[in-house]
Amino acid sequence: MRSDRGFRRLAIVTVAAVYLLILVGGLVRASGAGMGCPDWPTCFGRWVPPTSESQLPADYQEIYAEHGYGETRFNVTKTWTEYLNRLLGVLIGLLIFATLVASWWSYWKLDRVVVWWSAAAFVLVAFEGWLGAVVVKSNLTPWVVTLHLIVALLVVATLLLAMGRSRREELAAASLQRERGTVSLLAIVVGLSLIQVVLGTQVREEIDVLMVSAESARGTWAAELGFVVLFHRSFSLVVLVANGLLARRFLRDASPPSPLRKWAVLLVVTTTLEVVSGAVLYYAGFPALLQPLHLFLASVIVGIQFFLWMAYHHAIEDGGGLSRLAT
After folding, report:
1. How would you write the pLDDT of the chain (327 residues) with one tens digit per residue?
2. Angle 290-313/227-253 helices, nearest 10 degrees?
3. End-to-end CA distance of the chain, in Å?
4. Hey, which residues does 46 pair with through a beta bridge?
5. pTM of the model
6. CB 3, CB 109: distance < 8 Å
């Protein structure tokens, strides 16, 4: 149906926008612009941020001292970088609300599960907005920033669930061999990737400390980070091999027209790029612009894995014409 296609296109745009926000959020953090606006939802008490220091109170450094302005001065670039990040978050909130409305219009009578997952995404993005305020009020407390990222990934997951449910007939029509252990392998690979993401956030938190102290050059950070970064670097090879084995299974068991094959290839490519970017980060002294890309690729990997899990479920549980092997 035409309205079905409209919902799916809108959902795809919304997922892409959430990923863009993850990338932009990484850029904000890497550039040190996270406290460019020291209050929320306003910015320096204004709905439109200032463009020069002259627009601020004379004692603004005292007012916002606890947010890092006691010894630093207003930076227009950092302020507007953070403000544009917030505007993108508002846009995504509107997109997710539009997705919810579209799901209700298209699927309320056909399949209400699509609507419920869309509603879950809307609730989560509202929580994410509130959490953004907590990030600012906590002065970028590392665990709060990490939770902010995790909730963003949950928003992606719920949107993917809604999209997958809306395409369940298409996914169920895929020709797929059912082999024992595929679900277990999926769970292991997703678990390994999530562990790697958590390890990455630990490395990121340590880097934030080094950035604030500014007592050493970036080139020495790898040595100062110690065991955590070494384990994170070595564990990336485990994640790469695990994702390769998962992709190999889907390439073997799914027939050529199946979207599972394309997503399996994309998983291998993205995981390889993630490992390469991590190696460059480590040996090149953690260049600031590469850090957001590394985070973005990790988020994409989790999204791809989630889509594969969802697509496999529909192909096996709802599908017909499957070549069922030993289960």
Report:
1. 455 778 888 999 999 999 999 898 888 887 777 888 888 889 998 999 999 988 998 888 888 888 878 778 889 999 999 999 999 999 999 999 999 999 999 898 888 999 999 999 999 999 998 988 888 888 777 778 888 888 988 999 899 889 888 877 766 665 666 667 788 888 899 899 888 888 888 787 777 777 666 555 666 777 777 778 888 888 999 999 999 999 998 888 777 777 788 889 999 999 999 999 998 988 887 887 888 899 899 999 988 998 888 888 777 765 543 444 433
2. 40
3. 36
4. 43
5. 0.84
6. no
- Helices 142-166/76-107 angle, 10° precision: 30
Separation between Cα atoms, residue 56 and residue 63, nearest integer Å: 11
For 206-221, b/e burial (b = at least 16 CB within 10 A) is bbbebeeeeeeeeeeb
- CA 232/CA 206 separation, integer angstroms: 13
Strands 323-324 and 177-178, bridge-based pairing: parallel
Strand partners, 324: 178
What does the chain come to in residues?
Answer: 327
Tell me the residue type at 118: S
The torsion defined by the Cα of 115, 298, 227 and 205, in degrees rounded to 10, comes to: -70
In a 13 Å sphere around the CA of 26, the CA atoms on its Cβ side amount to: 23
Written as six digits, the tokens of 278 are 């991590």
**Cβ 36 vs Cβ 81: under 8 Å:** yes
Task: Give the count of alpha carbons within 13 A of 25, CB side only.
Answer: 23
CB distance 22 to 301 below 8 Å: no
- Residue 111 CA to residue 106 CA, distance in Å, equals 9
Task: Tell me which DSSP letter residue 35 carries.
Answer: T
